[in-house]
Design brief:
Layout lengths: L25 H15 L2 E3 L3 H9 L47 E9 L23 E2 L2 E2 L1 E5 L15 E4 L8 E3 L2 E3 L1
Parallel strand pairs: 2-7
Antiparallel strand pairs: 1-8, 2-5, 3-4, 5-6
């Protein structure tokens, strides 16, 4: 864990038990989904980029999870640290997902590709083109992975349901975490 993440010996800070987990790599997030699945008998995983975006935008294609206009009460943005995951109920999406924007960038299962300039997997989204393979890579090179949602460090004008970012899968920063999806 990065020093700024505040964890000690695999234990979160006692005053931040309701904050998102941060400072984890893409592999750490995937491993957590596998562990949670083994503990519960249900199938947990990172959401695909398409699932994440639908959870944020709904079926009406919202610019922000809460609607068409920016509302600073909808998320944790332009701040110095994370907030509890239930701190911004006004920002819930049509599916009642909270913290889709701000607080922490969220890893998705989706690969971007090997270079930063252009994706190996362009639009339109196709789940069967290799972008959702968890061991996807080119000649032993780990593919850059997509994250969504921005973070507490993001300025409000940069946050929107369609914004995306890319990072190396081994990247660990205090403003990135994850959410899990359950396959039903």
């Amino acid at each position: 864990m990065p020093k700024d993440a505040g964890w000690f010996l695999r234990e979160p800070p006692a005053d931040r038990l309701d904050h998102p987990v941060t400072g984890v790599s893409w592999g750490d997030a995937v491993a957590y989904g596998r562990w949670l699945s083994s503990q519960t008998g249900r199938h947990y995983r990172l959401p695909t980029e398409a699932e994440w975006e639908k959870a944020a935008r709904g079926t009406d294609g919202r610019l922000y999870p809460w609607g068409p206009n920016w509302d600073p009460t909808g998320c944790n943005a332009a701040s110095a640290a994370t907030t509890p995951v239930t701190a911004h109920p006004a920002g819930a999406s049509p599916y009642r997902c909270e913290d889709m924007l701000g607080n922490v960038q969220e890893w998705t299962s989706t690969a971007w590709g090997s270079g930063r300039d252009a994706p190996d997997y362009p639009y339109p989204y196709r789940a069967d083109d290799g972008r959702e393979e968890t061991d996807a890579g080119h000649a032993g090179q780990a593919l850059l992975r997509l994250q969504r949602g921005g973070s507490y460090r993001s300025q409000g004008e940069t946050l929107r349901s369609t914004a995306r970012g890319i990072s190396a899968p081994d990247s660990k920063v205090p403003w990135r975490g994850f959410r899990v999806a359950m396959t039903i």
